[in-house]
Amino acid sequence: MTGEIGFGLNGARRNVSAGASQRLIDVLREELDATSAKKACGIGRCGACMVLMNGALTNACLLMMWQVEGVEIVTPEGLDAVAEAAFVRQGLTEENAFQCGYCAPGFTVTLTALLREMAKPDEADIRAALGGNLCRCTGYHSIIRGALRAVELRAAAVAALPEPA
């Protein structure tokens, strides 16, 4: 059964004709040209398809279209509107966190969600948050360093803010 499903995508209202049992990852990639969330394992174990749904970290491969009616989805393409993402991207870049880059969007969304939830996550918090993300190229050390650098960058930016009057 196909119907009209409306939801927010990266700040814009979208209406798509989709079957209720279609997966969000498929609609994003095949119909909405939002291809940075990757379709990999298809069973929610690799983290390549991570998106934010109403601000919560979610695997797009596990979301059926009926579940996104009326919600706000932020894909890696929409992270420019999320302040924490700039620190994550800079930290990961400075530490040369990725080799092939296939997993990078999922890691970036996951770390952005973590920085939104915690002011100063430590290495243990980062490792726990990244438990659902797989990278087949690195030993994760550069990704962890990049995440820790993102925390430092954010802390420096917060410290540089003027004191409230």
Quick summary:
This protein has 165 residues and is an alpha+beta fold.
Write a structural description.
- The chain is globular and about 50 Å long.
- Helix 2 (83-94) packs across helix 3 (104-117) and helix 2 (83-94) packs across helix 5.
- It folds into 2 domains: 2-78, Ubiquitin-like (UB roll); 82-159, [2Fe-2S]-binding domain (DNA polymerase, domain 1, Orthogonal Bundle).
- The mean pLDDT is 96.
- It contains 5 helices and 5 strands, in the order ββαβββαααα.
- It has helices at residues 24-30, 83-94, 104-117, 123-129, 141-159, and strands at 2-9, 12-19, 50-53, 56-59, 72-74.
- A hairpin with a 2-residue loop joins strand 1 (2-9) and strand 2 (12-19).
- Strands 2-1-5-3-4 form a 5-stranded mixed beta sheet, covered by helices on one side.
- The protein is 36% helix and 16% strand.
- It is α+β, with helices and mostly antiparallel strands.
Keywords for this structure?
165 residues, alpha+beta, Ubiquitin-like (UB roll), DNA polymerase, domain 1, 5-stranded mixed sheet, 5 strands, 36% helix
What's the structural domain tally?
2
Give the rounded overall mean pLDDT: 96
Radius of gyration from CA coordinates: 16 Å
* Helix/sheet category: alpha+beta
Helix fraction bin: 25-40%
Span between N and C termini? 57 Å
Largest sheet report: 5 strands, mixed
Biggest sheet, spatial arrangement of strands? 2-1-5-3-4
Return residue spans where pLDDT drops below 50 for at least 5 consecutive residues.
Answer: none
Q: Which percent band covers the strand fraction?
A: 15-25%
Any idea of the CATH topology of the largest domain? DNA polymerase, domain 1
Question: What is the CATH architecture descriptor of the largest domain?
Answer: Orthogonal Bundle
Note the total helix count. 5
| Counted beta strands | 5
